[in-house]
Amino acid sequence: MSGTLFMIPVTLGDSDPALAIPAGTRDITLSIRLFAVEDIRTARRWLRNLDRTFPIDSTRFFSVGKHSDPRSLDEFFDLIAGGADAGVMSEAGMPGLADPGNVVAAEAHRRGIRVVPLTGPSSVMLALVASGLNGQSFAFHGYLPVETQGRRRAIRELERISAGGPTQIFMETPFRNSKMIADILAVCQPSTRLCIAADITLPSEFIRTMTVEQWRKETPDLDKRPAVFLLLA
Length: 233
Fold this sequence. Notes:
Blueprint: E1 4-8, H1 23-31, E2 34-37, H2 40-50, E3 60-63, H3 74-81, E4 86-89, H4 101-110, E5 114-117, H5 123-131, E6 138-143, H6 148-162, E7 167-172, H7 177-187, E8 193-198, E9 206-211, H8 212-215, E10 227-232
Parallel strand pairs: 1-4, 1-5, 2-3, 2-4, 6-7
Antiparallel strand pairs: 7-10, 8-9, 8-10
């Protein structure tokens, strides 16, 4: 009988797992000895963070990236087909959201392997819930273009789309947060609402929704802090 592929969440930063990871998710994670992960070193450290006695040396890890060829995971899936349960872990939050975990889940479905998502923190969902913006209709766009003009065009388009009702959600690499905020404030209408959610679930958590006009008078310092941005015109 085939094993199960579990989509395993991790914390959104360097925080106590007990505050964000449910006991059931922790127990299932610690029972698994086969993982597909973004970074093996980080994954090993996370498992030891959950339980210092976790048997790292008897656990198999397979590296997966957004451009991974599913055929490179043949051995991984063969082990699941043979009855082993397996897990997929991101670098932060939920696998499959803004990370390559979807590659593994898609291949599991193609092979008829059961995929089970486990409960845990998602910066996208937590930011939306706290934002006060439209939670009935929304879209997540991941990362916007790196080049300034391309990023500004994307922001203008997302603002235009949001005028019809759906909240537009996107992210940025922490060291480019200041550029993202500057571009949003430069191109968006004064009345557009912007939620900035940074360091979610961490002691330094910052989540606030104001109009673009208000943000222009009070710009936060988010240097090197993981953040999610939400727009609603």
